[in-house]
Amino acid sequence: MPAKVGIPRSLSYYQLFPLWKTFFEEMGAELVVSGPTTKKILDDGVKCCVDEACLPVKLFHGHVADIKDRVDYLFIPRLTSISKGEYICPKFGGLPDMVRTSLHGLPEIISTEINLRKNKRNSLKAAMEIGHYFTDKDSQIKSAYKKAVGCYNLVKDNFEKGYIPDFIRPGKTAETKSLEKDRNLNIALVGHTYNIYDSFVNMNIWRKLENKNANIITIEMVDEKAINRNARQLPKKIFWNYGRKAVGSAMHLLNEKNLDGVIYVMSFGCGIDSFVCDLVERRIRRTTDLPFIVITLDEHSGEAGLDTRLEAFIDMVRWRCTDKK
Ligand code: SF4
Hints:
Layout: E1 4-7, H1 13-26, E2 30-33, H2 39-48, H3 55-67, E3 73-75, E4 78-81, H4 90-102, E5 108-110, E6 113-115, H5 122-131, H6 138-160, E7 185-191, H7 193-196, H8 205-211, E8 214-218, H9 224-231, H10 241-254, E9 261-267, H11 271-287, E10 292-297, H12 303-324
Parallel strand pairs: 1-2, 1-3, 3-5, 4-6, 7-8, 7-9, 9-10
The structure holds iron/sulfur cluster (SF4).
């Protein structure tokens, strides 16, 4: 019987799942992914997690609760850095400890640290440590690692070309990233992947915008080289991986003449979002007259409130478009 490895459909899932999936399958493990977010998963997470945590971290706890009784291992890596010279939110590093403290009856947690800040080769070191849970053969782990990185890069490249991967939006095999002239509106949706692609958490903001005939562009659809080129223009380097991407992609999109508006989706209580959102907003206000709104999500967010704000925003975008003609 293959070992069952549980992966919560939350936080790093929305970015790194193709990497984990290929690696664990190559190791002969069976993957168990928690279900799409529901009210029950959210409520379970809110109940067991500390009050001070942000919504995505609470939700992560709910996803762990959803799978913990069905797996041999839980995969909760201690993510410190996923790119050279940059950090990610420290809460990712504390997740294994938070989960151990807040939930009972857990299977063994694979909580290997992944820290690429100083050296990208640390990823192979982490893969070897994780792989040894399943085999003693170093060659098998190295081969699985190579395939996993290849698969991850392919998904990432396709995403930049506009193909939204199936693990994020099932059934949505192809999208377009180009700012379309014949589509009514082109809207940039900026935010963390786990807020942008979890349709329960963001109260179906994609569907709501698409119903208004809007073409949506996200950070993941912007060419990484363009992101870096723009981020380098800032007077000071942003040392958060997400911050560089959010500001760099916003700066790139602002130069595109067909962009009609920007929506920033953030989590209540998120320190990184509060400052990255401010940087994006200042850049927009200084360099363009584009409509911009911030949607803040927490466990108390009401759908009616979101609908009203989106309606008003889209009306404003349309008036501006009409005025410019
Ligand atoms: S970056 Fe913000 S929203 Fe994400 S886990 Fe950290 S505090 Fe929470």
